[in-house]
Amino acid sequence: MVAGWFTEDGDGFRLLGTRCSACASVFFPREDVHCRNPGCPGGRLDEVPLSRRGRVWSYTDSRYRPPSPYVTDPELPWEPYALIAVELESERMVVLGQAVPGVTVADLTVGMEVEVVPGVLHEDAETTWTTWHWRPTGAMG
Prior knowledge:
Layout: E1 6-7, E2 14-20, E3 26-27, E4 45-49, E5 53-62, E6 81-88, E7 93-99, E8 112-123, E9 128-140
């Protein structure tokens, strides 16, 4: 788990971003040093939970084993997964993430509603590395 990127408190699993108090731009991954909006004079960056649901903007499948720092066991066969770009309307941004296990590109369409859920990036005997996944809700836009 990357500290500060998501939370499972309160109203469930949410990605965490930051919003500039001067221009209202929202950033994910979070920005804690300065506003990345080139037209902004700069303001305080406050942590904000991002929308739990969005719409598929684009998608593809990952059919190769990514290089380090991605954690994977080279002794096990590579399992392809769907990678989804999700548009969060109220934040006016697109966030990438893996689809939940079992969802393939054949199950996805542009405009389909998805929700963010916790997922497992990798686990070994001592540690489980948590990430986020996108899960279709069944709603179309």
